[in-house]
Amino acid sequence: MGxxxxxxLGADMEEGILLEWLVAPGQQVHRGDVIAVxxxxxxxxxxxxxxxxxxxxxxxxxGEQVPVxxxxxxxxxxxxxxxxxxxxxxxxxxxxxxxxRAVAQHAAHRTVSPLVRRRARELGLDxxxxxxxxxxxxxxxxxxETAAAAAAVTDAMVPPGSPSRSGTPAPPGADTARAxxxxxxxxxxxxxxxxxxxLxxxxxxxxxxxxxxxxxxxxxxSRSPEAxxxxxxQRPSRRAAGTSAxxxxxxxxxxxxxxxxxxxxxxLSTTVDMAAATDWVRRRNRELPVEERLVPSALLLLSAARxxxxxxxxxxxxxxxxxxxxxxxxxxxxxxxRRGGLLVPVIPxxxxxxxxxxxxxxxELTSRSRAGRLRGSDLVPPSITVSNLGDQGVESVLGVxxxxxxxxxxxxxxxxxxxxxxxxxxxxxxxxxxLAGDHRASDxxxxxxxxxxxxxxxxxxxxx
Length: 464
What we know:
By secondary structure, the chain is an alpha+beta fold. It is built from ten helices and 20 strands. It has helices at residues 100-110, 114-122, 141-157, 183-192, 210-216, 244-262, 275-287, 296-310, 355-371, 444-459, and strands at 2-5, 15-21, 28-29, 34-39, 44-48, 53-58, 65-67, 71-76, 265-273, 316-319, 322-325, 331-333, 335-336, 342-343, 346-347, 374-375, 384-388, 407-411, 415-421, 424-438. Strands 9, 12, 15, 17, 18, 19 and 20 form a seven-stranded mixed β-sheet that branches. Strands 7-2-4-5-16 form a five-stranded mixed β-sheet. A four-stranded antiparallel β-sheet has the order 1-8-6-3, with no helix packed on it. A hairpin with a 2-residue loop joins strand 10 (316-319) and strand 11.
């Protein structure tokens, strides 16, 4: 038996708001299952369970503000108790007890995985009403999507008020589309005074999405369905609507102010010839399918991780007046959000990855960050952070260290500039790499060694 507690999803996080439970009491969970959605000062985060067991009690209510370390739920070890094999005999005048087969079916429904249950809610379905085709009657994602597609076809063929497949006529004035409205779209519709039942959904299975609601609001500029994607389904929190960007900026300001006040920064920079790296990427991309092709950023990140592994004085945290080196290189990657603000998701054990694995991790983290679908495991404390503003055309980045880390690496744009090679002046692809170091934990000589190792990896990409 153990407690599921509010995790720390950032060095500046002191509390979070429980937005949504994705499990219920009696449901079996496994390590890595997403079981709740928590709002932090910077984003809504999917939080995973860290042990196997069965949910005994949900302690925190949705919408409740819980401090870091506060109990959210209580778990029991092992699977839920199995239903009895034989149903008790019915007494005179009482309905017969449910047969064992039905009990077993209901038990299987109660253990629908959190991801499948969430997908069902997105499509407007009750997962307990979906027939499972998986082992032991388990409801799979395919079952849910098939049921949603079937429901959409039926709704398109049966006019309102007509008998449904079950033969029950729809009540007059019933909101027939209510079951196909995403939770966020429903909340947005209520805020904007729009009836979602009268909207045509453009989501899977005809689901009404946030974009459909916004297009129905008078005076709202028309946008394509893809222009406004539903963020993670959220329930109303205690924060006023529209303040998330301001809250994020306040959080960033507080951390950066503390960093500049408490950390004695030193800065170093070097310029690296990227000719070998860009040629290597070009050759590799000829052999890869389009969806797996590489960009130079993957090489930059992996080189920084390998250099941090080789120069451990820059990979770790300054806590209680002492430097604590990290066992692995958990590489933080600064992601700029389109709505404003920054997030720093993490590539764990980045030094152990290949270039292809680094590229896949970068693509996944960027996508989840900008879609508002980060998980708790994406926000573990980094041991060193990278800021890459090359796609913005910036030549160099003089960053501010994110405490309690002791270093930040900055990459500018890879651009063609004059460069001398073997006494001959030519035009080469170059990148400026900067290092912000904490003088309490290291000095310029250590920082120079780090940059030298990083440059060596970029000039010999075949060794990565």
